[in-house]
UniProtKB/TrEMBL annotation:
Residues 10-98 form the Roadblock/LAMTOR2 domain. The lineage of its organism: Bacteria, Bacillati, Candidatus Melainabacteria, Candidatus Obscuribacterales, Candidatus Obscuribacteraceae. It comes from Candidatus Obscuribacter phosphatis. SMART domains: Robl_LC7. This is Roadblock/LC7 domain-containing protein. InterPro entries: Roadblock/LAMTOR2_dom. It comes from the Bacteria.
């Protein structure tokens, strides 16, 4: 759970990812789809992204479990508008969006998100 005291630390972690590996911004979403924190540009509809991100991750997690492949912990979606990378952290979803048209080092992106995701877990656990 994000407390008022930890909210600043969460925001700083999200901001630290911006610009790395073509990252446009990040959003931390609760399992119910509510937005906890964001570093996305103001023109992006964070409410819709938050709600749909929670639904996407949850539905794919159920599918993965039905395939007997364990629990979903991360997923990456490549679109014509950029990459969305999802990471589960302490019952929240960290969603990272890249900027359109960027050449992305996917391994570097995933590694950076994992590192910040683990840091988030210590703050919000």
């Amino acid at each position: 759970m994000v407390t008022p005291e930890s909210a600043v630390n969460v925001k700083n972690l999200l901001n630290a990812l911006n610009g790395k590996h073509g990252i446009l911004g990040c959003i931390l979403v609760a399992r119910d789809g509510s937005v906890v924190s964001t570093s996305l540009p103001a023109e992006i509809d964070i409410g819709t992204i938050g709600a749909l991100s929670a639904t996407l991750f949850s539905n794919n997690d159920v599918s993965i479990q039905r395939m007997n492949r364990g629990n979903l912990i991360q997923m990456t979606l490549l679109t014509d508008q950029g990459i969305l990378h999802f990471y589960e952290a302490a019952n929240h979803y960290l969603v990272v969006l890249t900027a359109k048209g960027q050449r992305i080092n996917l391994e570097g992106l995933i590694r950076s998100v994992e590192e910040q995701g683990k840091s988030l877990e210590t703050i919000i656990a």
